[in-house]
Structure formats: structure tokens, C-alpha cells
Write a structure and sequence with these properties.
By secondary structure, the chain is mainly beta. The chain has no helices and eleven strands. The protein has strands at 2-3, 8-12, 19-24, 30-38, 41-48, 52-57, 63-68, 74-82, 85-92, 96-101, 110-113. A four-stranded antiparallel sheet has the order 4-5-6-7, with no helix packed on it. A hairpin with a 3-residue loop joins β5 (41-48) and β6. It is globular. The termini are far apart. The mean pLDDT is 94.
Length: 117
């Protein structure tokens, strides 16, 4: 899985190097991408200059969640599982870290502040 300045996220075949899926929806540079398994299905999670974090279904290329909670671009994204709940963690230019529910979406479950730059 990769992301780029063209505003897309690409899912690649390891053998052959073909793009299996091109995920479109971000406007501007996509800064980070990761994957997570949700209910037995691989999801792609991306973040970008449009200030959003997106959770994608690879099959069909649809954004299942568009998470908004940062002001300015989102610099990075990762995922973790706690008590069988899938969480997305994003960090932005706004110096905030947002923790989201990857399945339900909505507002951040928690916003952490403390970075100064």
C-alpha cells in the first residue's frame, strides 16, 4: 500500500507490481497510509493535506469512514486493537493526536494535546 502527492492511495500486487486498487477521495497530498484487519477484512487507513483520515474497503475502493477532527493537514496515521475494538490514531499539523473508532467513525474518542511543534 502506498500514498502520494496525486491524492491517491494504491494497493499493489506483491508479485507483478500491478496496482490492484486505486483509492480516490482525498484532495491534495496523501501523507500517510497503513492497514488494519477489521472483522476479518483488511482495511486501508490514510491521512492527508485535506485534514481527513479515511478508512477504506479495498474491495470496491469505497471510503467507509471520513474522519474529521484536525485543523490543517494530517501528518501521520497508525492503528491498534484494544479489547477487540479497532482504533485509529492520527497526528496533525495542529499539534493534536486524535484517537478514533475505526468502525463507528464520528468525532474523535479522545484528543491529546502536548506537542509544541
Amino acid at each position: 500500500v502506498s500514498c502520494g502527492a496525486d491524492g491517491t492511495v494504491r494497493v499493489w500486487a506483491i508479485e507483478g507490481g500491478d496496482a490492484l486498487q486505486v483509492l480516490r477521495g482525498h484532495s491534495g497530498y496523501v501523507r500517510g497510509v497503513t492497514t488494519v484487519v477489521v472483522n476479518g477484512e483488511v482495511r486501508v487507513v490514510s491521512c492527508g493535506d485535506d485534514g481527513t483520515v479515511r478508512v477504506w474497503a479495498i474491495e470496491g475502493g469505497k471510503a467507509l469512514q471520513v474522519l474529521r477532527g484536525h485543523t490543517g493537514f494530517v501528518r501521520g496515521v497508525t492503528t491498534f486493537v484494544v479489547n477487540n475494538s479497532v482504533r485509529v490514531v492520527s497526528c496533525g499539523r495542529d499539534k493534536r493526536v486524535c484517537i478514533w473508532d475505526a468502525i463507528k467513525g464520528g468525532d474523535p474518542l479522545q484528543v491529546l494535546r502536548g506537542h509544541s511543534g
